Amino acid sequence: MNDTQFTTEPVGVKASRDAEWLSVNDVSARWSLSRSTVYHLIAAREIKSVSLRRRGQQKGKRLVFVDSVRGYFDRLLEAEEGPVFVVAGSRERKGGSNG
Q1: Which residues lie below 8 Å from residue 77, measured CB to CB, with a gap of 6+?
Q2: Tens digits of per-residue pLDDT, 32-89?
Q3: Which of 23, 31, 67, 68 fits as disulfide partner to 48, beta carbons 3.0 to 4.6 Å?
Q4: Crossing angle, helix 24-31 and helix 35-43, to 10 degrees?
Q5: If you write DSSP's letter for every residue of 37-75 in order, what string do you get?
Q6: pTM here?
Q7: pLDDT at position 89, please?
Q8: Domain ranges of the chain
Q9: Whether residue 27 has pLDDT greater than 50
Q10: SS3 at position 24
């Protein structure tokens, strides 16, 4: 007998935590930012993105480079609290206090 279960419910696809590129909507949801804030950061060149579209078309799909978003937050944190060092997956502030 086959133990396979079937469903009529839609199956959602979530962006992988290890994804290198995310859509603007995924960036917005993952970091609780508004879409307009994400577009503002792109326009200000604070985060990197590319637009996938066919030649001559105005509409396309904008993808954001995940490491650039992390880098942006790291720069904000460093500007507010001094240098941050990443040691074996944990963060340590200069002077040894953990944050």
Answers
A1: 84
A2: 999 999 999 999 999 999 999 999 998 999 999 999 999 999 999 888 876 656 666 5
A3: 68
A4: 110
A5: HHHHHHHTTSS-EEEE--TT-S--EEEEEHHHHHHHHHH
A6: 0.64
A7: 56
A8: 21-52+59-93
A9: yes
A10: helix
For 60, left (φ over 0), alpha (ψ -120 to 50), or beta? beta
Of the CA atoms within 13 Å of residue 70, those in its CB half-sphere come to 10
Q: Which residues pair with 85 in a beta bridge?
A: 92
Cβ-proximal residues to 86 (8 Å cutoff; 6+ apart), any chain:
92
Q: Considering only CA atoms, which of 39, 36, 35 is closest in space to residue 47? A: 39
For residues 72 and 41, is the Cβ–Cβ distance under 8 A? Answer: yes
Owner of token pair 């060149």? 45
